[in-house]
Specification:
This protein has 145 residues and is mainly alpha-helical. Strands 1-2 form a two-stranded antiparallel sheet. Helix 4 crosses helix 5. The protein contains 5 helices and 2 strands.
Length: 145
């Protein structure tokens, strides 16, 4: 009644499973590549935006902040900071430049990084670019970040 499990059956299951999951992988890859361009904000990444990302990485901003939900949750989400600051890169630059030297006593606060005007402009342009990215679930969920 019950048939013995043979090497041929095991081999067929292995090859069939491999082919199935390979085709599934290809289908999901194709689907991802068709959806991602629709979410892009279709803005060319300028040299200034690239410099802003470099400054962002050099100062490990992701170590405290989240950006589109990725990063640490110590400080506010910055995916919509451009909109929160009234669509003004000048407001972002002023906020970063105005941080106290030793922080606010008794409170966690952003340190003073002593960024140059060029670096401040670059970071503000980077955050402006990020705010234009269309996320799949309208992230961040609240205006405060």
């Amino acid at each position: 009644m019950a048939q013995a499990f043979t090497k041929a059956m095991a081999r067929n299951i292995f090859y069939g499973g491999t082919a199935f999951f390979f085709l599934l992988f290809l289908a999901l890859t194709f689907q991802t590549h068709s959806v991602v361009p629709q979410r892009d904000n279709h803005q060319a990444i300028s040299d200034l935006v690239a410099k802003g990302k470099q400054v962002w990485e050099e100062h490990d901003c992701i170590g405290c902040h989240t950006l589109l939900g990725e990063g640490a949750y110590f400080a506010p989400e910055l995916g919509n900071v451009y909109k929160r600051f009234g669509n003004s890169t000048d407001a972002i630059k002023a906020f970063i430049a105005s941080r106290p030297e030793n922080g606010v006593p008794g409170r966690r606060s952003m340190p003073q990084f002593h960024l140059s005007d060029e670096e401040l402009t670059a970071v503000a342009e980077f955050l402006k670019y990020v705010s234009g990215i269309k996320t799949s679930r309208n992230w961040p969920p609240t205006p405060q970040g």
